């Protein structure tokens, strides 16, 4: 991941539990390398970043946090956020009021936008980010074998997931006896009893 930070990693593992677990572990490791992972941000922002259910992938997602979590912000950012929040409330109140003139409504909206811009710039600056920056560390694509196969080897051998017969390359022995039929019979016996005779 260090050598190719902008690469897309195509993970091709079986459909079994081990394959799913490996992919989940890989994605978890990749997320921990994110520049907004709690262990990678300044100490004063760590508690706030831990409040996200999942790590944001864009600065837009980062700024779209739960209003209840603003109290986890450092003091300077909390004050800026509360300034924005009260300006936003006032702008909404003015918007729905029939007794406020159009100019006063626009002035309230302008104050709200300025307060948001001030908060956003300070917030991103605190995390050493720029607006529009991609926060994903790597792109991961899980490649799966076709629907009828449990893994890629079976797909290459054209061995379907619920196939009950094994095809033998040599169909006849030296005496002309059909080995494919005997092998299928042998497999059925093993499957039924769990052992060969």
What does this structure look like?
The protein is mostly helical and 197 residues long. The chain contains seven helices and two strands; from the N terminus they run βαααααβαα. It has helices spanning 17-32, 43-50, 59-63, 75-96, 102-126, 152-156, 179-193; strands spanning 8-12, 139-143. It has a two-stranded parallel sheet with strand order 1-2. α4 runs antiparallel to α5 (102-126). The chain is elongated, with a radius of gyration of 30 Å. The protein starts with 7 loop residues before the first strand and ends with a helix. The mean pLDDT is 80.
Overview in brief:
The chain is mainly alpha-helical and 197 residues long.
What are the salient characteristics of this protein?
single chain; mainly alpha; 49% helix; 5% strand
The number of helices is 7
Strand order of the largest sheet: 1-2
Q: In angstroms, what is the radius of gyration?
A: 30 Å
Helix/strand order? EHHHHHEHH
In round numbers, the mean pLDDT is 80
- What structural class results from the helix and strand content? mainly alpha
The rounded distance between the terminal residues' Cα atoms is: 52 Å
Poorly predicted regions? none
What is the share of helical residues? 40-55%
Shape category: elongated
* Count of beta strands: 2
**Largest sheet at a glance?**
2 strands, parallel
Strand content: 5-15%
């Amino acid at each position: 991941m260090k050598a190719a930070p902008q690469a897309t990693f195509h993970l091709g593992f079986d459909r079994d539990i081990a394959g799913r677990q490996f992919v989940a572990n890989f994605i978890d490791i990749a997320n921990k390398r994110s520049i907004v992972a709690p262990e990678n941000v300044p100490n004063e922002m760590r508690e706030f970043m831990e409040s996200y259910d999942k790590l944001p992938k864009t600065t837009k997602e980062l700024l779209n946090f739960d209003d209840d979590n603003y109290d986890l912000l450092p003091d300077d950012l909390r004050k800026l956020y509360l300034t924005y929040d009260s300006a936003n409330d006032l702008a909404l109140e003015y918007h729905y009021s029939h007794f406020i003139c159009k100019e006063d409504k626009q002035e309230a909206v302008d104050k709200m936008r300025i307060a948001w811009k001030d908060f956003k710039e300070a917030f991103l600056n605190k995390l050493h980010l720029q607006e529009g920056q991609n926060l994903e560390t790597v792109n991961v694509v899980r490649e799966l074998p076709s629907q009828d196969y449990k893994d890629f080897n079976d797909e290459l051998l054209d061995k379907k997931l619920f196939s009950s017969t094994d095809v033998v390359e040599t169909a006849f022995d030296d005496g002309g006896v059909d080995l494919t039929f005997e092998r299928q019979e042998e497999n059925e016996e093993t499957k039924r009893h769990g052992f060969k005779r």
